[in-house]
Structure formats: C-alpha cells, structure tokens
C-alpha cells in the first residue's frame, strides 16, 4: 500500500496548509496537535517529562473502562479524501489495536460540541493497526469534507494522521475576478514534473510562504543541456494578469532563468518569456496579451529551486461554471 497513488496527493489535514486538531477527549501523555505536524515523527529514547517518556504524537491514558478515544481534525484544505494514513511510528507497546475514521461536511465554523452532535460519515471502518508503522487505508467516498474524526480503539498513541485528497474550493468564498488560478487551495494541482529530487513540485502551489528551503521544489543538479519543468492544471479556466515566481530561501541554488507557457488545448503558447531570476527573491511579472488558460507550464533554466508559483487572474465564464459544478457535485453525494 506504500505505493498507493493517492499518497502523492496533498495532505489536506497538515498544519502547513492550515489544518487544526480542534478537539480530543484525552491527551494526557502527548498533545493532539502533534497528529498533523508536517514533518515525520522523531523519537529520542530515555527522554522523560513529568508524565513519562516524551512522544512526538498523540497519546491517551490507559482506559480502565469500556470506550474509545477520539480526535477531531479541521481540514486546512476541504476536499475529497482518497486515503488516510494512521502512523504509529515509535509506539510499540502502547499503540491502539484498531482505528476508524469518520468525516463531515459543514459550513461555517462550528464548535467542537456542535460538531460532536452532527451526523458523521464513516470513511474507514474499524480496522486493525500495526505498531511502529504507517497504516494505509484507501477511501472511496467522492464527497467533499471539511472535518475528519479519528477514533482509536480503545486507547494508545498515534504519531501522525495524514488525510490525502483533492482540495475543492467553495465558489461562494472566492472572488472570480481576482484569484490565484494556480493555488492548491482553489483546486489547482501539479500533473507532471521533470524532477523532484529534493522536494515535491506540489509545494510550489501550497498556501502561504515557504518557511524554509525544504518547503519548496528543488531539482537535482543537471549535467546535460536540458532544463527542468513543472505542469500545473489550473483551478479552472482563467485569464492571468500577474505571475509570481518566488525563489525565497534559494540562494546558491536558485534557477538562473524561468519561462511560463500555457494552453487550454493543443500546443503550448508563451505566457512569460524566458526571464532572468534573482536568488532569494519574490518576482512579480505582468502578463501581457493574456488569453484563457487551463494549464500552466513553468520551465526553469537549467535547474534549481523555487519556493512558490502564483498566477493571479480572473475566471472565464467556463471557469466559473467548472468550479461551481465541482463543488456542487462533491457536496451532493
């Protein structure tokens, strides 16, 4: 299951994209917020706090009565869930024997008490877990969700909880005349890249600024005459006005130049000609003679690292219709 295609999709629950653990019924040994930390869990034996061995995860006390423990996660990127990972790394004699996952679609910002009183969909039936391992579970529901609830039976520790899927934006919360057409949170996605040696190209379209170099996309050093590239399927058809190419944190390894091309169908056409870049800099360029696009290609010369790629513009009538139907179709299942 480690090779499941859905593991390449973004983690909708990650703190890096705005996820939050809004509630847990118990977190005596280790805090619930650790569940959605973006990095892999770490462990240092013999490191004790006043409650015992310190774990990089969520750990509840030993139950002495029937029941189970739960944590509710607000997705940073609401969307359809393709699969979840319940990671019990470093939990050996204290991992839960089994777990189940539910999901909920809700508007607004309900409190944990209000969430607990709503009807949840089961997306992963109660299933056995292996200790000190990543446990993979595929999800077949095509619904759009805003929250997920992890239940462990009966208690124990989970290091990380990953919720992989496709973001689906709510059109009522977007300005169709001014938005980032290439933003992951608006529904854009990376469909191809020449290289991802040091970082995923999906990082380019993630929300917010990159805090460190590792939160961007960086390729291996080329030893040939070629160049590296990324293709992004835009959130929907739109006409770009400005592009932002951000090399923040990349100093001795930024690309020397970059170019943008786009298409709706057929051949690629120039959006931004090959342009010189500076290291550790946010570059913004006006798009001249813009036309409607559904796909964007970034070429960097010859290789190197980029923190973020933005493409600001307006949706076409077709693009607005696409976004609306995508939301309504996933919301009505």
Automatic annotation (TrEMBL):
EC number, as in UniProt: 3.5.3.4
InterPro entries to which the protein is assigned, alphabetical: Allantoicase (IPR005164), Allantoicase_dom (IPR015908), Galactose-bd-like_sf (IPR008979)
Catalysed conversion reaction: allantoate + H2O = (S)-ureidoglycolate + urea
Pathway connected to this protein: Nitrogen metabolism; (S)-allantoin degradation; (S)-ureidoglycolate from allantoate (aminidohydrolase route): step 1/1
GO molecular function, one term: allantoicase activity
Keywords of this entry: Hydrolase, Purine metabolism
Boundaries of every Allantoicase domain copy: 18-166, 187-314
Transmembrane segments: none
Family from the record: Belongs to the allantoicase family.
Cited HAMAP family: Allantoicase
Protein name in the entry: Probable allantoicase
Organism of provenance: Amycolatopsis pigmentata
């Amino acid at each position: 299951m480690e090779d499941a295609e859905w593991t390449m999709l973004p983690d909708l629950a990650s703190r890096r994209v705005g996820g939050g653990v809004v509630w847990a019924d118990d977190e005596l040994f280790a805090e619930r917020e650790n569940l959605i930390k973006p990095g892999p869990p770490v462990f240092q034996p013999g490191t004790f706090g006043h409650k015992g061995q310190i774990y990089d995860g969520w750990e509840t006390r030993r139950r002495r009565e029937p029941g189970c423990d739960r944590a509710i996660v607000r997705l940073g990127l609401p969307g359809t869930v393709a699969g979840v990972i319940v990671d019990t790394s470093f939990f050996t004699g204290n991992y839960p024997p089994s777990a189940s996952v539910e999901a909920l679609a809700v508007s607004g910002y309900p409190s944990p008490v209000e969430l607990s009183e709503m009807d949840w969909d089961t997306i992963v039936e109660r299933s056995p877990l292996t200790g000190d391992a990543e446990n993979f579970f595929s999800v077949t529901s095509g619904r759009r969700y805003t929250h997920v609830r992890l239940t462990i039976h009966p208690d124990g520790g989970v290091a990380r909880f990953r919720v992989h899927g496709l973001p689906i934006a709510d059109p009522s919360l977007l300005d169709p005349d001014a938005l980032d057409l290439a933003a992951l949170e608006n529904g854009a996605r990376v469909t191809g890249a020449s290289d991802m040696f040091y970082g995923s190209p999906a990082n380019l379209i993630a929300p917010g600024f990159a805090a460190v170099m590792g939160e961007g996309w960086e390729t291996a050093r080329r030893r040939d005459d070629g160049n590296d590239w990324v293709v992004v399927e835009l959130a929907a058809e739109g006409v770009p006005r400005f592009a932002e190419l951000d090399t923040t944190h990349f100093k001795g390894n930024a690309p020397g130049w970059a170019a943008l091309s786009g298409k709706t169908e057929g051949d690629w056409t120039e959006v931004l000609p090959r342009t010189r870049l500076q290291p550790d800099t946010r570059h913004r360029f006006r798009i001249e003679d813009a036309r409607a696009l559904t796909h964007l290609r970034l070429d960097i010369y010859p290789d190197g690292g980029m923190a973020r790629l933005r493409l600001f513009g307006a949706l076409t009538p077709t693009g607005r219709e696409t976004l609306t139907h995508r939301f309504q179709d996933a919301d009505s299942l």
